[in-house]
Specification:
Elements: E1 7-10, H1 15-24, E2 34-38, E3 46-49, E4 52-55, E5 57-58, E6 69-72, H2 76-88, E7 92-95, E8 109-110, E9 115-116, E10 127-129, H3 133-148, E11 151-160, H4 166-181, H5 213-225, E12 232-239, E13 246-254, H6 260-268, E14 273-276, H7 287-290, E15 297-304, E16 311-318, H8 320-339
Parallel strand pairs: 1-2, 1-6, 2-5, 6-7, 7-10, 11-12, 14-15
Antiparallel strand pairs: 3-4, 8-9, 11-13, 13-16, 15-16
Helix pairs in contact: 1-8, 3-5, 3-8
Amino acid sequence: MSELVDIAVIGATGAVGEAIIEQLGEVEFAVGKIYPVASSSSVGETTLIAKRPASISDLAEFDFSTVRLALFAVPAEVSAEYVPQAVDAGCTVIDCSSAFRADSNVPLVIAAGLYGDDLANLGGQSIIATPGSLSAELALLLKPVNAEVEIVSVSAVACMSASDAGKAGVGELASQSAGLLGGKSAEASVFAHQSAFNLIPEVGPVGEDGYTSAEASTASELQRLLEADALAVDVSCIQVPVFYGNSMSVTIETRYPFGVDELTQIFSGIDGVRLFEGPENSGQPTPVTDLQNSDKTCVGRIRESKSRQNALNLWITSDNVRKSAAKNAIAITQLLLESYL
């Protein structure tokens, strides 16, 4: 990089956008001016970038030609409308939504170890998609395992926090919890049913095969990230009354026998993974106790399956906003600035 690159953060007032803004203010690599951009309802507001106030720009009126890199942290329908405009204006785009994840012409990237599509193969493509939080965490852990001993199937039950639906989801869970404790009824608008003190076995629209959009996309993204189209992936998503942090109970089945010690050894060598195994860890990871201000993927409960051969069970929890989404976007930004832009 010969000169500083100006950056726009689209969705700067949302949960992921705020996390990106915060982390951009803390990075050790050099960046140019950062433009926080959001919908017209946020115009007039300010945000802090490296402890300095910055005014929010209106997305509908923003001139993308003023920046070379745009980070989108908005709903898929907003990305679908504005990402092409940014590309036409000459921007490289990192999109955190699901809008382009299924497009085989768009690289799907986890920056840690460059899992998925290599940025060097961008060619004339100016859009980079980041995977969903579940597939990102699964790929981070399972890519090196699959390289060591072929994984033939992955089964995951995912506990999705309210923050997966952004600030609106967190706000609805908070208001419902307070209202119910005060004797009021719960009104649901963000989630399909009451989220407070409840479990909802339906995250996203249900397809003809009975799987929700969240389940289907996680499976297909994991296959792509592991470059394993034949991998059998079965995902069930449950909306749980937790504010931040997605967790998964996972079973992996390998082609050949593979033990707990071998799996633990691989995980211990992955940057950003915190293992809750051994005598120094008396507890097990939970989103409430272990994810506050944490950029770690926490792994515990590693054990052999008693119902399947060559299968291991484990528990994963990570901050879906701060770690899975924002930190990955920042890491891709650093790679682009240092090597490609």
